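Final paragraph of the annual report: two paired records, presented back to back.
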Amino acid sequence: MSSVASNSHYDPVSRVLHWLTAVIIVVAFTLGPGGFGRQMHEGLDPATRWDIVWHESLGVSVFVLTLLRLVWVALRPTAPHFDLNPWMQRVARMVQGLLWLLMLLLPVTALLALGSEGHPLTLLGGVRVDQMPLIANSPLADAADWGDVHGFLGDTIVWLAGAHALAAIYHHVVLKDGVLKSMLPRR
């Protein structure tokens, strides 16, 4: 029970923001420095590691893009609507909601990890935040091992995004309902 939407495509801004965010997440995950906390405790200056600088810069970019996307969702033209089985609609809403939540939580948990352990935030262009006293002195600092939480959420977003991509391919190949095409450029 699926049919093509009357408005068959997302607007160009939504498509660009979607794909830009997806690419940045994949690159940030790929560059994610394993053992970062341990290396910092051993005296590593993160500014000397291009992968850490890029990972942290891309993480901040994901957060900013997600906030922009949320504003755009409130302002944009109507998104395409597809008549899907109710269970598919529920699963799609749940997965999309989790992806949005993770795109916000991942950068926050990164800042909590850095701030609670006294590590600097190092970004492209030589931007560096050495101290984060609001985080270090907050009750949240000791509430969890934020580095572990960040790593778990990073793995989770990649698996969930993979499931999201596989579902889009399923819609395209099996259901032929235009769901995948709605996020691709018009022909």
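The closing record of the year follows.
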Amino acid sequence: MKRMISIVILSAGLLACGSTSKPTKQGNTALCSESNWQQVGYKLALAGKEIRTFNTLKADCNNDIADSAKSTYIAGYHQGIKEYCTYENGLVLGKEGKENILQCPKELREGFDKGYQTAFKAVQQQNERARRAADREQMRKQQSSDLIGSGRSQ
């Protein structure tokens, strides 16, 4: 029993550590001294963020970042967005029901959109089938209840 409680507490702690939240202005200022802006751009692209996120970061740093930061950020972003905008990632985001954001450039968008639409439609169909099944079950219970209430039973 103690072991089970320990596992539950450990799991909850790990989930809390792994949760994602929107970075605060204070969290962004830690990037101001970041020396690897290429890696920052790469990671933000893989997270599906806009390329313009750099402008927000720059403003949070009171425009106090290296002059070369933007060009290295953009280089990293372009590398990351190529990995993000794939058919496979479109499938993943479509299955999760995430919004189809328009971060992918035109030349990469077709494959991403195709994967997204394929998965999203499948999820919608599955949800519709589940809704219909729940409606039928509710109707069956109501009919059964009506029969019992009127003194007749099946």
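Residues 1-26 have pLDDT under 50 and may be disordered. This concludes the annual technical report; the extension proposal builds directly on these records.
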